[in-house]
Design brief:
2 domains; 1 helix; four-stranded antiparallel sheet
Amino acid sequence: MKITVFALCLLITLLIRTSIAYSQADNLILYVSDQDGNREIYTMSPDGSNRQRLTTNTNEDTEPAWSPDRSQIAFSSNRDGNFSIYIMNADGSNAQRVSPENRGSFHSSPAWSPTEDRIAYVSNASGVNQIHTIRVDGEEDTPLTAQRFESLDPSWSPDGRIIAFTSNPNGNYEIFSMTSSGQGARGLTVDSTVDSDSPAWSPDGTLIAFAANGGSGEIYVMNADGSNVRLLTSAANSFAGSPTWSPDGQTIAYALQGRGVEPSIRSVSIDGFSLLQLTDGTTFANFPSWSSPTPIAATGIVGDPSGETPPGGDIGVGARIQVASLEPTVPLRSSPSMNAGIVRTTPRSTTGVIIDGPQFVAEQSSRSVPQEFNWWQVELTSGEVGWMPESMYDEPVLVLADDIAPMQPVTCRLTTIQGVNIRNGPGAGNDQIASRPGDWELAADGQALGSDGIVWWRLYVGFWVRSDFVRENGDCNNLPVVGTGGRG
């Protein structure tokens, strides 16, 4: 019995030690330093101790990024001449080039997909910095952006559906998001007085950290939809950048570049109070990487209490589509621009086929918010041909016809009595995701009794408006109940 108890205690001790060792390894911060000569990749503990060199190369290794399972590291290096994307084991061994060998081009900013099968990166092979994704075996190099302006700093959301990035369609740099296939780009930050860059998703996918430079560079955090921006750092005459989250989402490490000194790495808690200096600034230390997007389950609309999930799938040439806006009709335009002439006014539920596109056009729309619209040329079943945007501000315009049941023609039209908020579920306590001014026409396809005891009209999956804020026109009372209740 004594031997059994001793063996059990020994086993528990070994398990605890193994768990501690794994937790410590799982929490290491990658960074770049020239402390031993040229710029190489290192790891350190979250308190700045236990620094270990991973690469030994006469050229430059930079911008490391952990794979989600932390078994591999992607990085950029010019060890073969031009800067390319490489992958190596977590101990620095077995480095292999992934991105194409295009002499004279520059590949940078690798970011792992949560499923670890693809890497997003930046390439200037077209003459302008654009975002690509590529399989980890070097196959299927796919450009996601193709504009006349730059796209930089890709960062994959933990559910794998969205990539946040930096772009400058209106002159200064702002944070945008797009689907992982390069569609539906929209602006998250809007401030013409500063440049924003280096977006980084929190591990739970609810927040994005980023850097903004308006005289001094600071680290900010915002909600994933661009709302509730708040300042974390106070750099004062210095420039903070390259934010990266701790695996538990409670701390952000970042690089701080003071005037006349080398950049150093610091960390700050997400409440902004706990600040720690990890490197002393006597040698170059930059590009920290702490966590990578570990996969989380994809959901429908964030925070949607009804659990409704909008149709998935990627639109492309040859796809059958339906018009699915919140309004009863959508303009079919003569060219890919909000200012182009209208070929016809297209009712919601109209079907057609994509025949060309996408055309990426950055415009200042009527809502005075810059967005890069993805336009598709559509041939409607009625024979007309024209252009429509795939979406507007995360609101649907075109959806794949094969992903949803055929939509019915609009039988219930609504006119707003005053300015209204559109929410992601039936009830005033749900999140606001859109708004409309007074005297605006909408279309409803369902109803539900909200959590506030008021009947709400569903405009489309995940988009709801209060019935007492709109006037009804048509057969609204007989719309199907799509929630927990409605008018009987």
